[in-house]
Amino acid sequence: MTIDLAFIVEALREISKVIPLTLFMTITPVLLGIVIGIIVAFVRIKQIKFIAPILNFYVSFFRGTPIIMHIMLVYFGLPMLVDMMASTLQLKIQSSTIPILFFVILALTLSAGAYASEIIRSGILSVPKGQLEAAYAIGLTFTQAMRRYILPQAFGQSIPNLTNVFIGFLHATSLAFFLSIKELTGAANIVASVNLKFLESFIAVGIIYWGISIVAEWISHRIEKRVTAYRKGGFSS
């Protein structure tokens, strides 16, 4: 058995057509997840009554169960909820009109939010408490102190772990093929099935995944170098 190098190049060309969709399915949930993570982290740190226990359950559930289950729960459960509400409120909405991609993005966003919240929470807790006290001493409010000093430092601490989340969810997009969304792994499966050259197809898609991961790590390193300047002076202007 020999590896068809020419076909790997051809497979790369064909599979790379779905890179934009795969990146959209990765970047969107991660960015939205970071926003959710910041909110959840604040609520859990402040231990807000009634809300904190609910968010503790949310984080525990989504971190403790596989992403494929989240996708399936949203894909099968949300349409039932939408149809039930439409029927009750007499709305002209049908779950069948909702794109499948929306269910995948929603499920991945909820999962990313749970992971990001723990990363951001640990980043905030890693900042010395004296930073917040010093901010109060110069007349800043809690929100101002968090926005100007605590969060930038916490974000700098969290960048490597957030990069790992990005790469993990890049791989998790392959699960969308279960719902017939043609992302990188799905495209590789189709190319392999048509040409019966599975090894070459998956070598090609592996190269693409690896290449995207290398670029993500490079960008992460550049951002980290800029953001971690906050660590040096704390209250530098």
Automatic annotation (TrEMBL):
Superkingdom of origin: Bacteria
Molecular-function GO term, any one: transmembrane transporter activity
Keyword ATP-binding in annotation: no
Gene Ontology biological process terms from the UniProt entry: amino acid transport
Domain ABC transmembrane type-1: 19-220
Transmembrane segments: 21-43, 55-78, 98-116, 162-181, 201-219
Subcellular location: Cell membrane
Bilayer disposition of the protein: Multi-pass membrane protein
NCBIfam families (alphabetical): HEQRo_perm_3TM
Family from the record: Belongs to the binding-protein-dependent transport system permease family.
Protein name stated in the entry: Amino acid ABC transporter permease
UniProt lineage: Bacteria, Bacillati, Bacillota, Bacilli, Bacillales
